[in-house]
Queue: 2 jobs
Job 1
Amino acid sequence: MNSFMQTIALIELSITSAVVLVLIMQKLTQQEFPLIAKISLILLLGNLFFWPLGLGMELPLAAYIRGVTGDLSIVLTLLLWSSLLPSSKTTPIVFKLAIAIIALGFYPFALGLDMVDPYAWGYGSIAFLIAVLVFAAVCGLANWAKGVWIIAIAIIAWAANWHESANLWDYLLDPFLAIWMLFALFGMLIKRRRAKAQSGYLFRPG
Amino acid sequence: MSRVIALCFLLLAAVIGFLHLDSRPAWAPFAPIAINDPSPVEEVLEPQPVSKSKNTIVPIKPSIPSPIATWLPDTGAASVHAASLIALKDGAVRAFWFAGSREGAADVSIYSAVFDPRAASWSAPTVVIDRVSAETGLSRYIAKLGNPVPSRTADGRLQLFFVTVSIGGWAGSSISSIMSDDEGLTWNKPQRLITSPLMNLSTLVKSPAVQFSDGRLGLPAYHEWIGRFGEFLRIDAGQVIDKRRMSSGRSAIQPLVFVNSPQEGIAFFRQTRSSGQAKQVPVSQTQNAGQSWQLAPDLPIANPNSAVAGLELNNGVRILVLNNIETGRYRLTLLMSDTKSNQWQVLEVLEDDEASPDSNRKEFSYPYLISADGNDAHLVYTWDRKKIRHRYFSGAWLKRANNQLQTVETDPVTKEVQQ
């Protein structure tokens, strides 16, 4: 079971690393690749990350990344993977804002600011599970079905002990997801300011 | 339509989630302290020179053997640290420690050796795990290895918790564990314990685990990055299934837990306070078997930001080994307290290099205590980072020391602190 879990974790991280590289390539070339090209690239890069390459390295590339990042949350993993789908909608701003606010409130306390430890709720708190389900239901009511699917899969993965952690938080949130959401929010704010400034310039009287 | 299907799937996830929560074990009380040999402590006869005259034979006077002092076997490494012990089923004692060219170097491995109490000698050291086997087993890059802490699971297997670092210094640590079915001769693949939401960074172990009545372990751990605080991990085999904060902020690490009753426990810490604050042993206590911890007044014993080791004997007497000075680690002291008076008194100064100039003083640190039979005490500690010292105090010696402390009016250790 332990070996299976380790292999699955490395496969997940290899695919995620490949997806991130493809997203970066798309950003740099400023064009969306055709689906077949994306799949081919992910297969190629994913294999490069997963298999030991030698060259003086004791482990596959994904294992070096895992040494630093640990296992990524299911939510981040699925958000990244699904972002390459052709009909992928952008993540709603409300979801980004909610994740950013939760992360800013969560991490200081989880890292020892006080005797209150919200991270401990993830081991066996019914109230916390209900809160997560309500959050997912709100995503559904706000017409973001992908969010519902992703959170539901994260809960099932936690119940199935998919990763090494027995804590629901680790399936829902990680620092990279929090940073991504924070940067996305800042990026959006800067874009809006620029747009506002430009429109103000164009329509400035006299 | 897709939204309805998604919400139905969420409902399924909710049911699975609630079933998972329902299957989780309830928090159990602390187990009573394990007693390997419930026989009362008897004074051991040590051969004495017998004086004979022509017609009279002087009977052998019963005496108590002095504590034994040995060294853990040399690994050839320049630097050794963080020794720990566990009693084996055959009465022997197995030690673990890490050794390498320097603390935190990539060549550091975790070693083990067995102490034979009959021969009073150690076996040759063997490597339990090195950096490469750790990273292969854990399927991730490991830069260095650290503190090993052994424990025994409810099914009788040995479990060794050890610290690994992938990035940065000790603040970037995580805990992993390995199991042995043959008392430490061979070990299975390591498993990672997940204890922190921030890339699982900065959790370490130093002190022995306590047992719950359901056979699970309560492992005192601590964080060193951003916050410096203690945490109580509830372990089921190789997985953390719950954890509770024992302190907060940046002032206390390396908790040592004493169990008072099935529900009550007390933890002593190594203080890491900023200058100007009391350099004493911080304390937390629990009234519900570790589910919640409250800060308590300091133990009035000096602590120079160094580890504290402790042990409770079958007769309720507790002993501590620590550096009872405010700066440096040049003095290591054995203290004793009984449950009635709760007063700690210095029993013996084990090491003292105060006479040496400041810059040349040796360091005696990282003590670790266990009992093989519930009455005696084995102690190991780092001796100037070059060697690991082992001291053995028999049950009879400790009993006599306790009797002497109760009959002789000695200064409580609080006076020691004020010096």
Job 2
Amino acid sequence: MADLPELNPVVHGRLRLALLSLLSGVEAAEFTWLRAKTEATDGNLGAQLLKLEEAGYVAVEKKFVLRKPKTLYRITETGRQALTEYVQALRQLLGPSIDK
Amino acid sequence: MHDHATDQELRDRLSLIENMIAEGRRHTESWGWTFVLWGVVYYLALAWSAWGHSVWAWPVTVLLAVIVTVVIASLKAGNHPRTTLGRAMGSIWIALGISMFLLFLALGASGRLTDQHVFVAVMSAILGMAHGASSLILRWKVQFACAIVWWVATVATCYGTEAQSMIVFLVAIFLGQIVFGIYGVIAEAQQRKRRGPIHG
């Protein structure tokens, strides 16, 4: 019997997983858009994004547009790879019960 | 970690990933209005150049339309994220706009834009190319029908009189820009209505 894979704890957090999944579908997203989609609080969202940034899964870009500060987040190649591996691990863990 | 996570929890995670990816890719842009706007712009420029006999009709109308388009698009964009698909679509139409503006400005300034048949044929061919490329990327049959309208106009305008060529152009603008644009606006509104509120 093959060893069951471990789930990446950084990716496994519900909000962090939602954020990585959201970012995987876009080129870059603003903090406010991520907040609207996840309905998370500013503090929690900021903390989870920081964890993803520290893990190298998201990159942050801060800039000013028409004198207004904008914080853009984008998924990195490492982050995309981690998400792909996480999905593969989930599928392997669920096995045949995945379609139930 | 699996020891603590139930199958239900794992399935919930998988479902969360699928929902969030779909949410991120959700086409939030609405572009139907631009086709209506530019259809009206073509009519205005044609009317001005026909009755006003001004060489400035097209450049001035098009420049004003570009400004209006950029301003409205910026206001509508809000904090929506950029997507690769959105950038691909935008690139096609921006490149079309620059090409048409430079081509017709240079032809007009050099005095070589004398044959109306050629003007309509070239404009129709470029619009057919843009609609065709966009419809193939989006796999949107209605827009492909729009491209066919412009391609038919490209060929049809090469035959017949100047008046017939102008009628072909006016009909193509109506079907390929205004009717298509209104259809796009309605389709986008229905799509938004079906989606309902977004939950994290």
